[in-house]
Amino acid sequence: MNNLERFYLGRYLQAPKRNLLRFSFVFMILGIVLSVGILSAGLNLFQGYESSLREVLLGSFPHIAIQDADSDYISMEDAEKLISTLKSNDKVEMVTPTVTYSVMAANDTRVRGVSLNAYYFDAHNPFPYAKYVKEGSSQLADGEIIVGKYLAKELGKKCGDTLKIVYPQLDKISAMGLFPSERLYKIAGIYSSGFYESDRSQIICTINDAVSLLNITPSYAKLELRLKPGAIDDATHIAEQLQQQLGLSYLLYPWTTFSAGLLRLVTMEKWLIFIIFSFLVLISGINVISAVTTIIFDKRNEIAVLRTLGSSNASIKRLLALQVGLTGIAAIISGQLFGALLSFLVEKQSWYHLKGDVYFIDSLQATISPLNQMVVFLVSALLISGCIWYPLKQIDKMQIIELLRNS
Amino acid sequence: MLCLAGYEISKSYIDSDQSIHVLTDANLELNEGEMVAITGQSGCGKSTLLHILGLLDKPDKGRILIGGREVHAGMAEAAMIRNQELGFVFQFHYLVEDLTAKENVALPAIIAGVSIGKAQKQASELLERLGLSQRLNRYPNQLSGGEQQRVSLARALINKPKIVLADEPTGNLDPDHSEEVWQMIINLNKQFGQAFVIVTHDHESARLASSTYNLAKGYLSLCP
Ligand SMILES: Nc1ncnc2c1ncn2[C@@H]1O[C@H](COP(=O)(O)OP(=O)(O)O)[C@@H](O)[C@H]1O
Ligand SMILES: [Mg+2]
User: Which alpha helices (H) appear in chain B, and where do they start and end?
Assistant: First the structure.
């Protein structure tokens, strides 16, 4: 930056209105703020969606599920051995035995198919999804259940009510037809993970209750593994290692088998949205081009005078670029703040909710990631600088003589 | 000692198939501290000649020497020469509307690389010497026509050029203000030894110059 550029920059910063901030500038700034705001808000919301989905997928489902390859159940003795082997692995945080089965829940008028998941609730085997019990107790005693939020709503039940669980024993068909086993349970807690499908079809009970309801010899349907935070992304690899260790009599399902593709798709969609919204910034760049063109036209005499006094075209271009560029940067940053506000408003508004059955989760959440904001800033700055430099080329073609003659 | 010379300068414009010879083999010499006037009818090519001498325009043919060195408008140093060795005053003041008198005067110094503060200080001193100490922080539209021209004269002088090229500097002024500016030019020429080439169609004023050229039909001739 030479002295002339510094001088003009100083003048501009002292009195932007007198020096450059004209009518066309207002639209330029408005365009940038709006487009960058939308770009930034879009990214914040998509990032929020991606993080929420990932969080709930990893938080409310096992990182690796282990089943017996030949039988529906893992016997207690086998499980004992398995658990101690698995727990000795330093990537494994928690191993939880569980019984799962499809049963039915009924109120006076309705019957709904639900998924029954049974866990222990003791110090040795804590319930791994306690944080999703948003109402009531996350510690169950026998005879108590935790019911998914939407399921409870659908059946008109709340904490403290009783709910009838029906297990149709298909192997006990008598002359009188199906002979279901049914029990009444007290709803001790409401489960709300944010994962729509779980919240509308899940019931959690104790292992004891499940064993007696299902009328099975005490055993587990599967073991649920939770990995240490740093190892979660490595689940596929860890599952392969465990498979070798445990042999072929067990089936291992890392979370990636079910969800990695979905998350990748969401990530891809996020950047696709980013690219599409970047075009908005490019469109606002048209305002920048016209604002710069207007400035050059308005200041053509001044440019001719500066050239006459011995300034170079490059220097004149730089001093204009600096002033417009600084305004552009201020507008981009304002746009990012506007985007943050916009995503905050979308998050807080109550007239639109994500459809849980379409988007898996039902709450819209914005995540303002510094890295994303950096990308928004750099891409916007790049696009806007291009739109500043392009029209400045006109200065090279200006004929100072003609300008000096024609005023 | 010659500080500015132009030899065999020709310039023509093509205007609707017809070429107009605005300048034909014009020769002009300016000594250090000398004041030369160029007169001629409106549209005869005086400004064109001045622009060529000031490296703002390219002649079709001819040589220009500044300080004994051959120079031309297309050369890389042309901007530097305009900044350091030449001062310009035009018929219209061409002051930058958004800058104060002081800042306008400081511009050539700032372009030359003088620090902003120092350039403004020099500008203030110069304006004070030209009797404009009360006008330092006024914007051009807050100045009278005579004051505007005096400010642009100060701007032409701030880098202490050896040569000042003035194109009808009083052309837009009423007689009183015109007189004021002429007095100033004469004083500057006497006090600081700046050489002036002044285009004017005011023959009275031209008589104040040490020599007068007349331009007519493309030919430049020294008046006796
Ligand atoms: N770009 C151009 N194209 C054609 N003719 C031009 C151009 N510039 C100047 N002229 C002509 O050259 C002549 C000299 O102009 P100028 O030097 O401005 O005269 P003066 O300063 O003596 O009034 C005029 O007739 C003008 O019309
Ligand atoms: Mg003229």
Answer: 46-53, 78-84, 101-112, 116-129, 145-157, 175-192, 203-206
Kindly state whether residue B125 falls inside one of the protein's structural domains: no
pTM: 0.83
Comparing CA positions, the residue from A134, A278, A117 lying closest to residue A210 is A117
Query: Is B63 a domain residue?
Result: yes
- Residue A321 CA to ligand 2 center (angstroms) comes to 33
Question: What is the rounded distance in angstroms from the CA atom of residue A113 to the CA atom of residue A102?
Answer: 7
The answer to the question of residue B110 being in a domain is: no
CATH number at residue B196: 3.40.50.300
Mutant choice from B58, B85, B111 vs A, greatest count of A C-beta within 10 A: B111
- CA-CA distance, B224 to B205, in Å (whole number)? 16
Please give, rounded to a whole number of angstroms, the shortest distance from the CA of A289 to a CA of chain B. 23
CA of B18 relative to ligand 1 center, distance in Å: 14
pLDDT in tens, A199-247: 999 999 999 999 988 888 889 999 999 999 999 999 999 999 999 999 8
How many domains are contained in chain B? 1
pLDDT in tens, B98-146: 899 999 999 999 999 999 999 999 999 999 988 899 999 999 999 998 8
CA angle B37, B40, B46 (to 5 degrees): 75
Q: Is residue B80 assigned to a domain?
A: yes
| Predicted ipTM of the assembly | 0.92
What is the C-alpha to C-alpha distance for residues A224 and A247, in angstroms, rounded to an integer? Answer: 17
Query: What is the residue range of B218's domain?
Result: 2-85+161-222
Ligand 1, pocket-test mutation among B10, B13, B19, most atoms within 8 A of CB: B13
Q: Which of B15-19, B99-103, B155-159, B194-198 has the lowest mean pLDDT?
A: B15-19
